[in-house]
Automatic annotation (TrEMBL):
<dbReference type="GO" id="GO:0001664">
    <property type="term" value="F:G protein-coupled receptor binding"/>
</dbReference>
<keyword id="KW-0460">Magnesium</keyword>
<protein>
    <submittedName>
        <fullName>CRE-GPA-14 protein</fullName>
    </submittedName>
</protein>
<dbReference type="InterPro" id="IPR001019">
    <property type="entry name" value="Gprotein_alpha_su"/>
</dbReference>
<keyword id="KW-0479">Metal-binding</keyword>
<dbReference type="GO" id="GO:0003924">
    <property type="term" value="F:GTPase activity"/>
</dbReference>
<keyword id="KW-0807">Transducer</keyword>
<dbReference type="GO" id="GO:0007188">
    <property type="term" value="P:adenylate cyclase-modulating G protein-coupled receptor signaling pathway"/>
</dbReference>
<dbReference type="Pfam" id="PF00503">
    <property type="entry name" value="G-alpha"/>
</dbReference>
<comment type="similarity">
    <text>Belongs to the G-alpha family.</text>
</comment>
<dbReference type="GO" id="GO:0005737">
    <property type="term" value="C:cytoplasm"/>
</dbReference>
<dbReference type="GO" id="GO:0005525">
    <property type="term" value="F:GTP binding"/>
</dbReference>
<dbReference type="GO" id="GO:0005834">
    <property type="term" value="C:heterotrimeric G-protein complex"/>
</dbReference>
<keyword id="KW-0547">Nucleotide-binding</keyword>
<dbReference type="InterPro" id="IPR027417">
    <property type="entry name" value="P-loop_NTPase"/>
</dbReference>
<keyword id="KW-0342">GTP-binding</keyword>
<dbReference type="GO" id="GO:0046872">
    <property type="term" value="F:metal ion binding"/>
</dbReference>
Amino acid sequence: MFGCFSRFSVEYCYQCMHGPDGCMVPSRHGEGSELYAHSEELESKLRGLAKKESMEIEKVLAQDKKNYGSHIKILILGGPSSGKSTIFKQMQIIHVNGFKSEQELVQYRGLIDANIRDSYFQLIAGARLLDIPLEPIDHLLYEINDIYSPMCDEFAIRTVPDLVEPLIAFWKSEQIQEVYKRRYEFELMDSTKYYLENLERISNENYLPNEEDIVHSRKATVSINSIVFEYTGVSLLMIDVGGQRSERKKWLHLFDDAKVVLFVIDLTGYAKKSEESRTELSRFPLLFRDIGKDAFDMKVALKIFNDISASPALASAVFLLFFNKVDLFKELLPQVRLQPCFSKFEEENDYDSTSKFICEKFTRAAKSKKSVFPHFTTATNTENIKLVFRACMESVFKANSKATGLS
Ligand SMILES: Nc1nc2c(ncn2[C@@H]2O[C@H](COP(=O)(O)OP(=O)(O)OP(=O)(O)O)[C@@H](O)[C@H]2O)c(=O)[nH]1
Ligand SMILES: [Mg+2]
């Protein structure tokens, strides 16, 4: 195990930005030496890697240009797990062919099975963290673990019918419901409830996911995905990238010619404090003095938005702000106040006041002169995204009429 991971419990290395499996920084002995462990040879290897990565991105872009000719380029940006890929999938459903091929559906089935298993283990980890005893449901844990244990191959996990009864009993137990109520105090997949309430259908031998199942699935993006589609006779190129810090390094390469930035914000980020946020904010000790207290995911999103809106390469781009996960945000508001995240917020903790406050924070963070259009969305809801996207494109065409040639 590399020193930086064990000592600082981080998910990726401070230096090479890879996770424990791909970390290239050899651990040395001695206090703090892990952070300074790069040898010259390693430095040059890393430089080579960065160059290779950048060349690969250029290649993807050149291919896109060749394939698609002229188009309006829309970049989907935002913090990790904010819902970027979910919106991208909705565009595939609404404007392209959706998800039809059996091979694709089988792949999504595998992902959904893995999501279900991860949710189960995250709930158990949450119970431990919150000190909620699980002894009364020990028999269910044994039963479920006994079924899951032989499926050690990551690609062969299946929500077999034998799992359904104990998993439903586990989910409905008083203890797990208590854990779930406090889900923002630990890491839990957003689609936990959706999948655990659809176990019977998912466990069917012939199960293939429908579109709703697919938009609820979760896999962090570590590549650059693009689609092209026609919208009212105009060709749009939409690009989805990863929001994790290691992925954000790739964003800059994509800014050129971007006419629209669709920036996605996870509204529930006001209650979440991830390890990534702590690491990110600790880079700005003057702005965020008490990192542990300040490390809300929404603050990181604000910082990222602030940075990209100041980018000269995006000076003439239209910014669409998607305040996403409205459904989860509404569930959360009666439980968690906005004030710990934003100390200046002193109004009622209801949807209207909180959403207005958050919206103002972001629109003010955008550098002046920018065209910024805020929208509130539930990305898992196809109808909602269809409507919002239509409104967005009207704003884009108006704001950018010269560039689109529609004036
Ligand atoms: N309930 C609910 N879930 C959502 C919503 N938007 C996204 N999700 C879920 O949130 C999870 C993360 O969404 P993604 O689209 O993968 O997030 P992302 O921004 O692409 O994440 P990275 O690729 O890691 O940057 C998925 O399980 C989605 O189904 C929403 O509006 N409501
Ligand atoms: Mg993604």
